[in-house]
Amino acid sequence: MVDLRGQYDKIKTEIDTTIQECINSTRFIGGPVIERFANNLANYLDCKYVIPCANGTDALQIALMAAGLKPGDEVIVPSFTYVATAEVIALLGMVPVMTDVDPEHFNITKDIIRQAVSASTKAIVPVHLFGQTAPMEGIMEVAREYDLTVIEDNAQSLGSDYTFSDGKKQKAGTIGQIGTTSFFPAKNLGAYGDGGALFTNEELYYEKIKMIANHGQSRLYHHEVIGVNSRLDAIQAAILDIKLKYYKNYIQARQEVAAYYDQAFTEVPELEIPYRYKNSTHVFHQYTLKVKNGKRDELKAYLKEKGIASAIYYPVPLNEQNAFRGKGRLVGDMSVTKSLCDQVLSLPIHTEMDNETLGYITQQVKSFF
Ligand SMILES: *Cc1c(COP(=O)(O)O)cnc(C)c1O
């Protein structure tokens, strides 16, 4: 699905040098490299504060803790997402309120949220799925109306631009009170190990997040609140800082792959190419087709035979996972989520794809139909 080796080969000298510098300095935890990366990412996102942490799941957990949510509080999440989004909610004793999603852009909307709100609802975690920003203008509008905290799960859409109705643009993850992301190797900005970060424009949240991620510590050995230990290590920060320089090119490479796929698949009536939501750019964490004739699994098996990887994100709605049995509240019949789980198929997409590979993949997909 990805080619991390090919990407490394192109920046090998820079990466090897920065790793060696980290080792020479022996500043493995904390220090100037992490600060530099956090500042550069904050500049790229046009966001006041970036707080690195150990992974995207921790980032979500820390965000919920910083938002001051308590056991029993309800948090609205889409049921068509990765488990991490709702897992941390349940882990903290809160109630995930699972909703259906929009059939075109796969994200939660203000109307869906409106149907889900109750007197116990305290927060929303919109997920910017596959590379596009959720309809944040409407989401922020209902959030204000019901006094809900908005924590954006931006593990998949780092760099996606959202355009408001007045023409103003903001990066995904910097619109709600807190945004989170993941630097898992296969994510768009991937480390060579685990990593994550939180974003906020509010100083109060920044202070809380910093404290919670560091054992609830205000100064050394003085602990104000129960926290966690969640750090990005210096070697990962150094690698990410190099890759961040090329991030715009990486997004462009992904968009070019998507354009190639689109052109090949628009003529296949059984396939629906990824919808482009007009208020958001698409950074194509995934290129996800809908297979409309019920043959998704056959297509996947056929491609495997031809040596082509493909993946189903996601085969099972959150609300059907055993882990969440009896733990959440369901809103609506989940008919959209269910049909997506049956239809979606994601094809290989990464920064190093050449036309020969793309030609082969598209030809094989077409030959199946
Ligand atoms: C990857 C991902 C996460 C979790 O990130 P990790 O770094 O693997 O913990 C959370 N939410 C979504 C939507 C993701 O895709």
Explain this structure to me?
The chain is globular. It is an alpha/beta fold and 369 residues long. The chain has helices spanning 4-10, 12-25, 32-45, 56-66, 84-91, 110-116, 136-146, 203-213, 234-245, 247-265, 296-305, 335-343, 355-368, and strands at 49-53, 74-78, 95-99, 121-124, 149-153, 161-163, 169-171, 178-182, 196-200, 217-219, 222-223, 271-272, 287-291, 329-330, 344-347. The strands form 4 sheets. The chain has an 8-stranded mixed sheet, sandwiched between helices. A 3-stranded antiparallel sheet has the order 12-13-15. The chain folds into 2 domains: 4-99 and 107-245, Aspartate Aminotransferase, domain 2 (3-Layer(aba) Sandwich), CATH 3.40.640; 248-368, Aspartate Aminotransferase, domain 1 (Alpha-Beta Complex). The chain starts with a helix and ends with a helix. Helix 3 (32-45) runs parallel beside helix 9 (234-245), helix 4 crosses helix 8 and helix 6 packs parallel to helix 7. 40% of the residues lie in helices and 16% in strands. It binds pyridoxal-5'-phosphate. Pyridoxal-5'-phosphate binds at residues 55-57, 81-82, 84-85, 127, 153, 155-156, 182, 184, 194, 196.
Name the descriptors.
single chain; 369 residues; 40% helix; Aspartate Aminotransferase, domain 2; Aspartate Aminotransferase, domain 1; binds pyridoxal-5'-phosphate; globular; 3-stranded antiparallel sheet; alpha/beta
